[in-house]
Design goal:
The chain is mainly β. Helix content is 13%, strand content 44%. The protein is built from one helix and twelve strands, in the order αββββββββββββ.
Length: 182
């Protein structure tokens, strides 16, 4: 009887330590991260493209920019550029059509793993050459195969280098008066 009591105490103690260890182990949370973007050089007065690369935590996906249902939250990039730098067209990758266990007959348009968003930037011709910071957010809703999590916003920051147009660097001699050398 004493052996049974000791074995029961050890079993209960072992099970409770396993449960405590599971509660202490951090749960995986969905997230999207942005790779450190290189500084993109853009000529003033002309459009240039900035590519922003993102990665989703393994085992999760986010809705594409054009989800299959109006009830789903799209992935959306919003940027604020300095004065006289125009944020043009934002180009999202096409989503991957996938079905999930919670709705096996419905295909959803999602991003999983790495994806890139391209943004057209056009500094006006009056912009002083130099580096400029662009700020914004990427709004997304991450899901796994069973659950969708609350929407999140990822801060997005990068720089562009504005340079003069090559034609601006050509130095011309000033026109001479036709009567100067008579």
């Amino acid at each position: 009887m004493l052996r049974t009591l000791v074995a029961s105490v050890l079993l209960v103690g072992g099970l409770s330590s396993i449960l405590v260890a599971q509660e202490l182990r951090p749960r995986r949370t969905p997230s999207v991260t942005m790779a450190d973007p290189a500084v993109t050089t853009v000529t003033r007065g002309k459009s240039g493209t900035v590519q922003l690369d993102f990665r989703i935590t393994s085992g999760f996906h986010v809705n594409s920019n054009k989800p299959s249902s109006p009830l789903l939250i799209p992935t959306a990039l919003k940027l604020t550029a300095p004065t006289d730098i125009v944020v043009g067209r934002t180009t999202y990758p096409p989503g991957e059509e996938r079905s999930f266990p919670f709705s096996p007959n419905e295909k959803l348009s999602v991003y999983g793993g790495p994806f890139s968003i391209k943004v057209s930037m056009r500094p006006l011709v009056s912009v002083v050459p130099g580096k400029y910071a662009v700020h914004g957010t990427l709004r997304y809703q991450a899901c796994d195969n069973a659950t969708c999590y609350p929407p999140k916003e990822l801060p997005v920051d990068f720089q562009i280098r504005v340079v003069k147009n090559a034609a601006e660097n050509v130095h011309r001699n000033p026109a001479q008066c036709p009567h100067a050398h008579r």
